[in-house]
TrEMBL record:
It comes from the Bacteria. Residues 17-380 form the AMP-dependent synthetase/ligase domain. The keyword Ligase applies. The keyword rRNA processing does not apply. Its EC number is 6.2.1.3. This is Long-chain-fatty-acid--CoA ligase FadD13. Belongs to the ATP-dependent AMP-binding enzyme family. Residues 431-506 form the AMP-binding enzyme C-terminal domain. PANTHER family: ACYL-COA SYNTHETASE, MEDIUM-CHAIN ACYL-COA LIGASE ACSF2, MITOCHONDRIAL. Keywords: Ligase. GO terms for molecular function: long-chain fatty acid-CoA ligase activity; medium-chain fatty acid-CoA ligase activity.
Length: 519
């Protein structure tokens, strides 16, 4: 199948907007094809028929490995229609990691796109549970690989199978593996009810219309791409354009060419977009909603977007909460610092864990507790980890330290596990990093704690200079000392070309801690 043509690096063009939910309205688009809602429903029923012929039954796990594509969602929806559980996997992992996840979840079918074919080979021998391989658009030289059936001919070409009608809101829908920044990944279980309530929360917070055209640049193996972008848009009858990999030039082009009204990103993406040579001439007039999360955006980045008339809305969440917990409101962003994560979603309870029990979130930082119908039941076959993640009253322990101003607008202070204690004082790396990136020569910074005989722990700052800039470590420490308490200033400053990040853009602090300890 050859890519459809049109403006924007090979991506297609949408038909005219429709101001209502309609079977003929465009639902999904990738660089190969577009589907209306009626066509998507038909395709899902056909793929469900193909999975049924492979022996898939309710409760089975169906894994997908590959970049964003229409087939990812066809596979997920087909699995759900049969009562099976979708397991989208990170295509940026190593073979050993993929094999571990397939074995951990007990997937019986692995669907993969051609870009992941070599990764599937590297993951071999696959666990015995994987009975069937399904190749999406295999290259002619591969023809699907040994033992694989082709998605179109073997899965989507047969008679359709309707939804079983027996799946309930409490049944598992998807397993999403956590990022693994603090250890080996585990699969968070999200039910159909969790995804539904998260969608309701998102639509209550973001004014999404059926005429909107959303760009999905976040990977669909991550909760943001699936739950914060795609599912809310499809529930409203809007359109979702899937981008295989983040590319600033492509994103800026598609915003203008397709009239994109919104997307979700991590701060690194927002920075790369506004620093791209095409930024100044890009037409951003169609944008109404740009949300981001993962960490606070740098003030200069937020200012660059605001100068173009685009209000950024920061959100906060985690995979286990489907993922939305907090989000800034569009009208409230002007009156609050850009570092605020906003207010709780509508059907979300929040509290702070104290020795006496849960207390309201206030000015004194503490570990955030979350409760609501969007919070998942736990981790796949991990009863001990599930129990450890819960506090009395059914609260989920986030491991994140937050505080809130008198208006209820919250601020993510840091991860509990990222905090270190120097000379008896708590040091939250995020606070130090936020000051460091205010330096004109600093593009990014990550701080970790290491053991010290005198102070217990001291900080090590890994600093990424801005292009063409020179950072003097001693001068930077003087800069920080003028703005922070002395015990918060890192003892060591190390310059790096790039900070190590996982697939969702989060800094891999475990790697930095290991590096610091080794040196």
């Amino acid at each position: 199948m050859s890519p459809i043509t049109g403006p924007g690096l090979g991506l297609g063009t949408w038909p005219a907007r429709r101001a209502r939910i309609s079977p003929d309205a465009p639902a999904l688009l990738d660089r190969y094809r577009s589907l209306s809602y009626a066509e998507l429903a038909q395709r899902v029923a056909q793929v469900a028929g193909g999975l049924t012929r492979l022996g898939v039954r309710s409760g089975d796990r169906i894994a997908y490995l590959g970049v964003n594509a229409v087939e990812v969602l066809e596979t997920c929806f087909a699995a759900w229609s049969l009562g099976a559980i979708a397991v989208p996997l990170n295509h940026r992992l190593a073979g050993d990691e993929v094999r571990y996840m397939l074995e951990d979840c007990g997937a019986c079918v692995l669907v993969y796109s051609d870009d992941a074919a070599e990764l599937v080979t590297a993951a071999g021998p696959l666990p015995p549970s994987v009975r069937h391989l399904v190749a999406v658009r295999p290259a002619p030289s591969r023809t699907g690989g040994p033992g694989a059936v082709e998605f179109e001919a073997g899965l989507a070409a047969g008679p359709p199978v309707p939804a079983d009608g027996e799946t309930g809101l409490d049944d598992p829908a998807v397993l999403l593996y956590t990022s693994g920044t603090t250890g080996r990944p585990k699969a968070a279980i999200l039910t159909h009810g969790n995804l539904t309530w998260n969608t309701v929360n998102q639509l209550a917070h973001v004014d999404l219309l059926s005429t909107d055209r959303t760009l999905c640049i976040s990977p669909l193996f991550h909760c943001v791409g699936l739950s914060q972008v795609t599912l809310p848009a499809l529930l409203k009858g809007a359109s979702v354009e899937l981008v295989e990999r983040f590319d600033p030039a492509l994103v800026l082009s598609r915003i203008a060419d397709a009239g994109i009204s919104g997307f979700a990103a991590v701060p690194t993406m927002l920075q790369m977009l506004c620093e791209h040579p095409g930024w100044a001439g890009a037409d951003l007039s169609s944008l109404r909603s740009v949300v981001y999360g993962g960490s606070p955006v740098q003030e200069r980045v937020a200012r660059a977007w605001l100068e173009r008339g685009v209000h950024l809305q920061q959100g906060y969440g985690m995979t286990e909460a489907s993922p939305g917990v907090y989000m800034a409101t569009r009208d409230g962003t002007a009156a609050h610092p850009p570092t605020s994560i906003g207010v709780p979603h509508f059907f979300t309870d929040v509290a702070i864990l104290r020795e006496s029990g849960p207390e309201p979130v206030g000015d004194e930082p503490g570990e955030l507790l979350v409760r609501g119908p969007h919070v998942g039941p736990g981790y796949w076959e991990r009863p001990q980890e599930t129990a450890a993640s819960r506090a009395d009253g059914g609260w989920f322990r986030t491991g994140d330290v937050v505080r809130a101003d008198p208006d209820g607008w919250a601020f993510a202070v840091d991860r509990v596990k990222d905090m270190y204690i120097s000379g008896g004082e708590n040091v939250y790396p995020a606070e130090v990093e936020a000051v460091a990136v205010g330096h004109d020569a600093v593009a990014d910074c990550a701080v970790v704690g290491i053991a010290d005989e005198r102070w217990g722990e001291v900080g090590v700052a890994y600093v990424q200079p801005r292009p063409g800039a020179v950072v003097d470590p001693d001068e930077l420490r003087v800069y920080l000392a003028a703005r922070l308490a002395r015990y918060k200033v890192p003892r060591y400053v190390e310059l790096v070309e790039d900070l190590p990040r996982n697939a969702t853009g989060k800094v891999r602090r475990v790697e930095l801690r290991d590096r610091a300890a080794a040196r």
